[in-house]
């Protein structure tokens, strides 16, 4: 069996049968052509049987290297014939041409389209197509969904921040409440008392001590005297108060502070000054003298003397106007009653006695006032300026009745405690026959047991004016007609 080409390469010195010549070689040895020498024939055979691992390009590279003299053929190998070299070069050229031709063919098969020119018409067309492709309902749903998602996330973030703040400031809130309580109980009364003492010293130095005149009235803790002239004001009323303890000192000092700090208003009694008399009663006690505007009488005395319907309704309007002013300054009177409404010579009303008056932020829940005029929530300690609306409702009952007689429901009460218990249980004054229906409805609304259902004074005032215009017009047509619209 003849050896394989691999074994032939492994034994270059061995002799093997010659391979069949290619057609080109046979053609070359046609008759008439010179016969190649044995050495040339052997070289041609080796050139026509290259190594299987060598490619045409590597063969070309090897040929170039041989031409440049970089590498020498190994010993014992015969050089390739020019015919075989020419054949290999031709094949390599065809291969390279085929490789180069494929990208060209691919590129030629691609359809090249020039980009459109961006013109105003093209832009308008694209925009029109985009607008026509929109759906109003889908767009609205998408926008609403995005808004809803954003609002929900914002709300959750806000709620989380609030919870974080509440957790961080819960202790601080308790401390703040304690500080407010200290301000209400200690600091505010102390500062008010210092203000009273300093102002009294200034008034004594400027205007001297006032001279006490005729006694005008007497209360639980003081007496009211007439003073002819003091500090350029005449006539004056001098309220002499002897505080029995520290609490009453604080209340008196706060009354002075509020009366001095409030702007002047035609429905509030003016305070001209104050003097502290350290030798009052022969030096046995200290009295505070408050010099105020002198008025003709109080509403209690006026009702006893008798007032016309028009005058009484005008007094009710004046009281509402004064209470509204106090509320606008952040104050709650807490003791609206007949004797705290003073009348001038024209029977126009002014509110006085701000001893129980307090800012809403400083109300500590203390029980103050006259029992019949006290709203039920005053006994719970949680109340606001609606307690003045309740008190006005009771006051309006007296004004409409035209007398100072107690309502029958309260006349049977033997003590203050009994009266307070009746108020807490919801007892209210009875309806009198002389009451107009609209007046009675206004009273009931003002003394409603639920503070949130009581009307605001800004609503009460026009209602009163409407009632006054209607009743006064009707009364002028029928002089004997009273408040009762059925008579």
TrEMBL record:
This is Dual serine/threonine and tyrosine protein kinase. Residues 1-96 are annotated as: Disordered. One of its GO terms (biological process) is positive regulation of ERK1 and ERK2 cascade. The lineage of its organism: Eukaryota, Metazoa, Chordata, Craniata, Vertebrata. Acts as a positive regulator of ERK phosphorylation downstream of fibroblast growth factor-receptor activation. Involved in the regulation of both caspase-dependent apoptosis and caspase-independent cell death. In the skin, it plays a predominant role in suppressing caspase-dependent apoptosis in response to UV stress in a range of dermal cell types. It catalyses: L-seryl-[protein] + ATP = O-phospho-L-seryl-[protein] + ADP + H(+); L-threonyl-[protein] + ATP = O-phospho-L-threonyl-[protein] + ADP + H(+); L-tyrosyl-[protein] + ATP = O-phospho-L-tyrosyl-[protein] + ADP + H(+). Its EC number is 2.7.12.1. Pfam families: Pkinase (PF00069). It is found in: Apical cell membrane; Basolateral cell membrane; Cell junction; Cytoplasm. InterPro entries: Dual_SerThr-Tyr_Kinase, Kinase-like_dom_sf, Prot_kinase_dom, Protein_kinase_ATP_BS, Ser/Thr_kinase_AS. One of its GO terms (cellular component) is cytoplasm. Residues 210-464 form the Protein kinase domain. The keyword Cytoplasm applies. It comes from the Eukaryota. Its main location: membrane. ATP binds at residue 239. GO terms for molecular function: ATP binding; protein serine/threonine kinase activity; protein serine/threonine/tyrosine kinase activity; protein tyrosine kinase activity. Keywords: ATP-binding, Cell junction, Cell membrane, Cytoplasm, Kinase, Membrane, Nucleotide-binding, Serine/threonine-protein kinase, Transferase, Tyrosine-protein kinase. Belongs to the protein kinase superfamily. Residues 58-67 have a biased composition (Polar residues).
């Amino acid at each position: 069996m003849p050896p394989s080409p691999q074994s032939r390469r492994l034994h270059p010195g061995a002799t093997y049968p010659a391979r069949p010549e290619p057609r080109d070689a046979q053609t070359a040895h046609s008759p008439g052509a010179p016969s190649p020498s044995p050495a040339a024939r052997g070289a041609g055979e080796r050139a026509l049987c290259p190594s299987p691992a060598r490619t045409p390009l590597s063969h070309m590279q090897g040929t170039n290297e041989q031409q440049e003299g970089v590498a020498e053929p190994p010993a014992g190998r015969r050089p390739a014939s020019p015919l075989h070299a020419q054949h290999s070069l031709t094949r390599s050229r065809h291969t390279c041409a085929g490789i180069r031709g494929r990208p060209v063919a691919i590129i030629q098969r691609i359809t090249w389209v020039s980009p459109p020119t961006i013109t105003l018409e093209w832009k308008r067309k694209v925009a029109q197509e985009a607008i026509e492709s929109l759906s109003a309902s889908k767009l609205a749903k998408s926008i609403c969904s995005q808004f809803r998602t954003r609002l929900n996330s914002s709300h959750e973030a806000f709620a989380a921040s609030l919870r974080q703040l509440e957790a961080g400031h819960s202790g601080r809130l308790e401390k703040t409440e304690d500080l407010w309580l200290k301000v209400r109980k200690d600091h505010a009364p102390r500062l008010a008392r210092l203000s009273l003492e300093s102002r009294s010293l200034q008034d004594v130095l400027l205007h001297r001590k006032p001279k006490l005149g005729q006694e005008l009235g007497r209360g639980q803790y003081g007496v009211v005297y007439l003073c002819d002239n003091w500090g350029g004001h005449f006539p004056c009323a001098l309220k002499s108060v002897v505080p029995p303890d520290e609490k009453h000192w604080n209340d008196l000092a706060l009354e002075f502070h509020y009366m001095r700090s409030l702007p002047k208003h035609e429905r509030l009694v003016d305070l001209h000054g104050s003097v502290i008399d350290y030798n009052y009663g022969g030096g046995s006690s200290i009295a505070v003298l408050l010099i105020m505007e002198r008025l003709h009488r109080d509403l209690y005395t006026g009702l006893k003397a008798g007032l016309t319907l028009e005058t009484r309704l005008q007094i009710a309007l004046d009281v509402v106007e004064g209470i509204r002013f106090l509320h606008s300054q952040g104050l709650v009177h807490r003791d609206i009653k007949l004797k705290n409404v003073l009348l001038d010579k024209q029977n126009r009303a002014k509110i006085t006695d701000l001893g129980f008056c307090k800012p809403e932020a400083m109300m500590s829940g203390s029980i103050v006032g006259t029992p019949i005029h006290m709203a039920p929530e005053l006994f719970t300690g949680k109340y606001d300026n609606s307690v003045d609306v309740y008190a006005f409702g009771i006051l309006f009952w007296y004004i409409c009745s035209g007398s100072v007689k107690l309502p029958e429901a309260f006349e049977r009460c033997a003590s203050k405690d009994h009266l307070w218990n009746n108020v807490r249980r919801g007892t209210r004054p009875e309806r009198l026959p002389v009451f107009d229906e609209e007046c009675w409805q206004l009273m009931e609304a003002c003394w409603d047991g639920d503070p949130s259902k009581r009307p605001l004074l800004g609503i009460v005032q026009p209602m009163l004016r409407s009632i006054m215009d209607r009743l006064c017009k009707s009364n002028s047509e029928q002089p004997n007609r009273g408040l009762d619209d059925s008579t």
